[in-house]
Write a structure and sequence with these properties.
The protein is of the alpha/beta class and about 210 residues long. It is built from 11 helices and 6 strands. The longest helix is centred in the middle third of the chain and has 15 residues, at about 125-140. The radius of gyration is 17 Å and the shape is elongated.
Length: about 210
């Protein structure tokens, strides 16, 4: 079945362009909303698979609507689509449970590609955004949380998050709760992570991380 998407943006032309783009690429546009308040009501009624959420809107903005949307439609993923590259907005969105943070400057085909990944549980992060997030993780966690480029460049943004949480000794269910994804999805990310790192266990993955840090 096609992924059902709720488009939230206060500009009608933007909503129309996104609806046309998604409709041409095997997504189903379940509904549209022009504000955070409207989005919460529509999400509660329609229970979409994915919400594409603008950051700056009158009334409740994207960051304010994000946790309320996740309560209204617990099964959906929320991807921010914005022109803002401000680090505080990026970090607030990720901490609030967003599955992605895309810039409106992305080419349409890249937006489609990112949304397909988000629907499968992958993190949807524009390239420059992913780099900023990695830098913030490095700066905020100190030497203990530093991830060398040799590993960061080999895995996806979501797999990097999983690896860092494994490094914090979190279990599968704890990682699932922290990232707002299912335990099955966590296991899938771990399996992919191990394959990319060329190891066969979580312990070996952490040993590889430790060795790369030295």
């Amino acid at each position: 079945m096609a992924t059902r998407v709720l488009i939230v943006d206060d500009h009608p032309l933007t909503r129309g362009a996104l609806a046309a783009l998604l409709g041409q690429n095997d997504f189903s546009v379940a509904g549209e909303a022009a504000s955070g308040e409207e989005a919460i009501e529509v999400a509660r009624e329609l229970q979409p698979d994915l919400v594409l959420l603008d950051l700056s809107m009158p009334g409740i903005g994207g960051l304010g609507a994000l946790p309320l949307l996740r309560e209204a439609a617990p099964g959906c993923e929320v991807v921010m689509l914005t022109a803002s590259v401000a680090e505080e907005n990026l970090l607030a969105a990720i901490r609030g449970g967003a599955a992605g943070y895309l810039l409106k400057t992305e080419p349409p085909e890249r937006i489609v590609e990112f949304l397909r990944g988000a629907a499968e549980g992958e993190a949807a992060l524009s390239g420059s955004v992913a780099r900023r997030l990695l830098e913030q993780v490095r700066d905020g966690r100190g030497a203990e949380g530093w991830v060398p480029d040799s590993i960061a460049g080999a895995v996806s943004a979501r797999e990097l998050e999983v690896l860092l949480l494994l490094d914090d000794h979190l279990s599968t269910d704890q990682i699932a709760a922290r990232l707002f994804i299912s335990e099955h999805t966590v296991r899938s990310h771990v399996k992919s992570l191990l394959r990319k790192l060329g190891v066969s266990s979580r312990r070996q993955a952490l040993e590889a991380l430790g060795a790369a840090r030295t």
